[in-house]
Amino acid sequence: MNQILLNLIKVYKNCGIDNTYFLNLLSELIENSDDDNFRLECLEIIDEFNQNSEDIFLFLENLFISDMNHDIKFAALKIMINNYSKKKVIKPILYVLNKCSGNFHFNLIEILSKLNPFHCKKILIEKIKSQKSENNDLSWSFNENLSSLSLEMLKQIYGNMIFEKSLEDLYFHRNKVPFVGNL
After folding, report:
1. Cβ–Cβ under 8 Å, residues 104 and 70
2. Average pLDDT, the chain
């Protein structure tokens, strides 16, 4: 662990610094550092000493929503899941789900399916229906009622739809955008 953080913990334990002040100091260090490993170590300490304060939740929520580093995002989410109610944590997950894509998107769906499977199933049904209405000529279709399908099946269908859409986008890009050599 970083020597600065070790000294900070020692001062916190030996000098009776207020917990709120200590956690706010760590959050300031996270916000002002460019070293992602240092920031992750600070988050580990926050996880260890957090007392479910609202200020820290808002800080973690902000990190989860807006940080550019996925490791930082997941560390913040892990702390929120470990220390706060599921109901409170689901809101930022839903917000980020609507803004992100790729592997991060699927990891969030997996986390949401563990936190609240019913809610996850509902969201997947909505996303599948919206994808289907955007593109009526998908190469596959289903005649079943989506709500009768299992959560795992819905995750698989949604993953296939996203994969097919990414292939279509790649095809469009390669066939519509001229290559530098063709100019």
Report:
1. yes
2. 86
CA distance 19 to 9: 11
Q: Which amino acid is at 178?
A: P
Report the C-alpha gap between 105 and 155 in whole angstroms.
11
Dihedral pair phi/psi, residue 88, rounded to 5°: -70, -35
pTM: 0.81
Structure token pair of residue 178:
């001229």
Residue positions counted in the chain: 183
CA distance 116 to 102: 21
Sorting pLDDT into bands at 50, 70 and 90, what band is 91? very high
Identity of residue 16: G
Q: 5: closest CA among 47, 42, 48?
A: 42
List the chain domain ranges. 1-84
Query: What CA–CA distances, in Å, run from 73 to 56, 70, 122, 168, 177?
Result: 14, 5, 24, 29, 34
